[in-house]
Amino acid sequence: MIRGPRRTLVAAGLFAASLLPSPARAQSLEGRVTRLTLDNGMRFLVVRRGTAPVFSGILRFKAGGVDDQSGETGMAHLFEHMAFKGTSTIGTRDAAREAEVLDAMDAVVRDLHRELDRGEHADRARLDALRARLQELIKREQDLVVKDEFMQILTNNGAEGLNASTGEDLTTYVVSLPSNRLELWCLLESARLRDPVLREFYTERDVVMEERRYRIENQPQGRLYEQLLLAAFGAHPYRVPTVGWMSDLDRLTRPQAEAFHRTYYAPGNAVGALVGDVDKAQAEALLRKYFGGLTPGPPPPTVATAEPRQIGEHRVSVEFDAEPQLLIAFHKPTWPDPDDPVFDVLDSVLTSGRTSRLFRRLVVDTRIATSVYSFEAPGNRYPNLFVIGAEPRSPHTAAEVETAILAELQRLREEPVTEREMQKVRNELEASFLYPLRSNMGLASELSRYEILTGDWKGLTDFYAAVRQVTPARVLEVAKRAFVPSNRTVATLVKPAAAARPEGAAGKGR
Asked: How far, in Å, CA of 421 to CA of 414, rounded?
């Protein structure tokens, strides 16, 4: 079983994994979480707990792949890379000279794109000259850059877990620091919001293009998943990979990235969380001092396109020289729709552990698959997919595995889940919900995720309660609606015909 980010939600009110959830403890958490909303709309959640002199800090922005504009796919992810490049005072040896070089690079790239837009009429000599000029400017820029100075400052001050990630829904920046470095965290995080310098943009763009090649184009799982989303979503931007399309990446520019920052990194589009040895009064004073002066901006545009109801099964075959794989996806709503928690239960019933239905049938009993798993994709801001994946065991085929999976799904549509299974699922989900709370970072992650996705961190309490209230009758009801052919998308990885042809078969019959 694979759980997406939202699938690690925790029982509100639990500050130790040994405690079990209860309304009283949920109220206890409510009393210990302080929400601070600045005048510019930026929100922070602060929780003091633990005895070790450390804290975890998270900044989340409602800016992900789903927010990339047409022709600029991959920008949210690329900007995450750029956010570590520093400011006009961090990461450079001469800000004024560097600014001149960066502007010159933008001008060259603009001219390069204009020439490329001429297609077959492009002047090859001019293209070569512009590319050579760009490389010359990149070398000049490198001489002015203090490499990774932003990260080095944090590392030298005891940072642990310094990282960032971009998904379809959100971009997240995380770090844990000694508690006496809280002001440093505020200073650095606010500085890169107020005064980011997107140095090394065009070299980092090449890094992201290589990342796409490695993670998607050269990986069977990446290719299959990308094609699954394209087949399942015909209209909604969830169909576009977070890393972007190669043709778009190749044309992204630094001015476009600066525009993305102004639009989506506005204070009102951000949520921060501080958990650990943090004095709330001191934290509030520092947050107001460093983040309160950030200029508020208009609300970013929302995704207007809704995915139409699927009216027939979608199927896609992906050719790749690798062993076969299978993905079966069903459209589903996301929280706060009351059906959403039922899919957590279905996830556990089907693929969690050796006694789960699909693992027992496909891997243990019939041995037609080497693995089976399930997850929700690609995000949680909008209606998404419940996906079941499996790898056939040779000589069995993806078709055999698909038949077996669909038979188990039909069983769920006809027979209620047993109470014994439900109790196992409740125990398992409770444990998985509790586990992240053992760390400051885990609690900060869950609080900030619900705050930014639903508008209130308390939504995690509601979701957890909804999962616990799922009954066998509700599982049956949702399975009957969801697991139907017209709501199904199937993606299969197959070997190319040439690769699958027996040795010596080429040319026969000619």
From this structure: 16
Structural domains present in the chain: 40-92+145-291 (3.30.830.10), 314-497 (3.30.830.10)
Residue-wise pLDDT for 360-408, tens only, equals 999 999 999 999 999 999 999 999 999 999 999 999 999 999 999 999 9
* DSSP code for 382: S
CA-wise closest residue to 387 among 379, 378, 399, 376? 376
- 449 touches 35 (CB < 8 A): no
Region of 444 please: left (phi>0), alpha (psi -120 to 50) or beta. alpha
Question: How many other CB atoms sit within 10 Å of the CB of residue 323?
Answer: 14
pTM of the model: 0.91
| Helix residue ranges per DSSP H, 57-167 | 75-82, 95-116, 124-144, 149-156
The label of the residue with tokens 């958490």 reads: 29
For residues 281-311, b (16+ Cβ closer than 10 Å) or e, as one string?
Answer: eebeebbeebbeebeebeebeeeeeebeebe
